[in-house]
Task: inverse folding
């Protein structure tokens, strides 16, 4: 393709050559309600661990935007699985190692061309899904992440833990941007869409939430096109976060160095 082809320009109205575009993180913000959407090519994956109070609302809303819903459950001890079954989702069980394990476990079961990951805790708005999928449908990106830094967060600020998470995640995001000479604002969001074929090729290894940054680093490393759209993060509706930052901080830094350098 030539310089200046019109695909990039919906984003920032600037001209970049294809090589630059491949490793560029682009920014798209449109009226989410107005976007055309092809639900028949979308599988939505929802990782769950004891989300009985949140899950049904998410599944019902997600049905508008996909033709397959997979709930990948971490052996919940509440009614999560029953609720998912009754709502018509396919249920897969992980190996009790964490959210990363859950994501890796469900990959062989995904049957549609585009996969969307969304949390079950109510912090992501399913109405943002068309916005995440649009750049892939239009062949402008292979992997699109929602950005809380661009879309705002009701959860990322406040206490000491939140502050440490924001600092840590900003540091990692900056390192990824530096390594790939690209601008990305959020490397840790669990709300994203990507081509299923790419997802299968990433050879993911992480067992915990470090899988979010692993997906982005490996996408960029393999030369695929990364995109980013603003999505707001809401406070978890019910229940508690499963992340204990003190326990996983080292793994975040270690895995970032591992995938960035080796
Ligand atoms: N299958 C599975 N799902 C999990 C596991 N741990 C967390 N989840 C789910 O992954 C999603 C994200 O978990 P959260 O605890 O909200 O973590 P987070 O959103 O990254 O962090 P917060 O910002 O603190 O909410 C939720 O839908 C959880 O139910 C797990 O071990 N297995
Ligand atoms: Mg959450």
Result:
């Amino acid at each position: 393709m030539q310089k200046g082809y019109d695909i990039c320009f919906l984003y920032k109205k600037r001209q970049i050559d294809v090589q630059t575009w491949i490793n560029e993180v682009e920014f798209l913000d449109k009226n989410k309600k107005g976007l055309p959407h092809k639900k028949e090519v979308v599988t939505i994956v929802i990782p769950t661990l004891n989300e009985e109070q949140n899950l049904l609302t998410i599944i019902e809303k997600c049905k508008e935007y996909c033709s397959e819903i997979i709930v990948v459950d971490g052996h919940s001890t509440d009614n999560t699985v029953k609720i998912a079954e009754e709502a018509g989702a396919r249920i897969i069980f992980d190996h009790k190692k964490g959210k990363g394990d859950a994501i890796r476990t469900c990959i062989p079961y995904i049957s549609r061309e585009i996969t969307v990951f969304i949390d079950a805790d109510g912090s992501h708005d399913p109405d943002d899904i068309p916005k995440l999928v649009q750049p892939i449908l239009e062949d402008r990106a292979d992997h699109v992440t929602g950005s809380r830094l661009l879309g705002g967060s009701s959860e990322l600020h406040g206490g000491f833990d939140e502050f440490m998470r924001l600092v840590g995640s900003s540091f990692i995001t900056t390192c990824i941007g530096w390594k790939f000479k690209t601008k990305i604002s959020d490397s840790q969001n669990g709300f994203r869409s990507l081509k299923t074929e790419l997802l299968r090729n990433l050879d993911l290894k992480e067992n915990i939430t470090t899988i979010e940054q692993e997906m982005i680093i490996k996408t960029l490393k393999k030369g695929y096109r990364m995109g980013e759209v603003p999505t707001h993060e809401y406070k978890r509706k019910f229940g508690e976060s499963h992340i204990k930052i003190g326990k996983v901080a080292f793994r975040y830094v270690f895995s970032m160095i591992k995938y960035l350098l080796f």
